[in-house]
């Protein structure tokens, strides 16, 4: 039963087998030696291809900044956006599963809510403020 659904609760096991909560807990913990554990959190899953692409973009921006200085930064446009979340990632507690001591450690990658970005046409960008804030601490030429 636990192997079929590792997220099953002790109450669900007890109800399905028609036994008390305490008896189900005793069987699962003491006899079968299962423990309820959370997956180990690790940084976002990035393939080597993703890592290489991110590094290439960073290097390209760095090279362009060294070539064009602040002129390169003046060509970057940012603005306020509205984020509409499609789902909420599962919490660590919600993802807890039964694990036998001989089972391999399960990894869960950190996630952020999936979102759609929407910029409003005709909205005002506060460019000088944003640029000044972005450049604080940057050595200008």
UniProtKB/TrEMBL annotation:
InterPro entries: RNaseH_sf, Transposase-MT_Hybrid. One of its GO terms (molecular function) is nucleic acid binding. It comes from the Eukaryota. Residues 94-121 are annotated as: Disordered. Coiled coil: none annotated. Residues 111-121 have a biased composition (Polar residues). This is Histone-lysine N-methyltransferase SETMAR. The lineage of its organism: Eukaryota, Metazoa, Ecdysozoa, Arthropoda, Chelicerata.
């Amino acid at each position: 039963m636990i192997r079929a659904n590792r997220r099953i609760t002790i109450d669900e096991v007890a109800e399905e087998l028609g036994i008390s909560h305490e008896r189900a807990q005793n069987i699962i913990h003491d006899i079968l030696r299962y423990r309820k554990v959370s997956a180990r959190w690790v940084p976002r899953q990035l393939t080597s291809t993703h890592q290489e692409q991110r590094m290439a973009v960073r290097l390209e921006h760095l090279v362009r900044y060294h070539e064009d200085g602040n002129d390169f930064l003046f060509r970057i446009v940012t603005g306020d956006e509205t984020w509409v979340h499609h789902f909420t990632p599962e919490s660590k507690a919600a993802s807890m599963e039964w694990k036998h001591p001989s089972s391999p450690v399960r990894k869960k990658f950190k996630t952020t809510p999936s979102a759609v970005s929407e910029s409003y046409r005709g909205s005002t960008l506060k460019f000088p403020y944003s640029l000044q804030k972005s450049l604080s601490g940057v050595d200008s030429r």
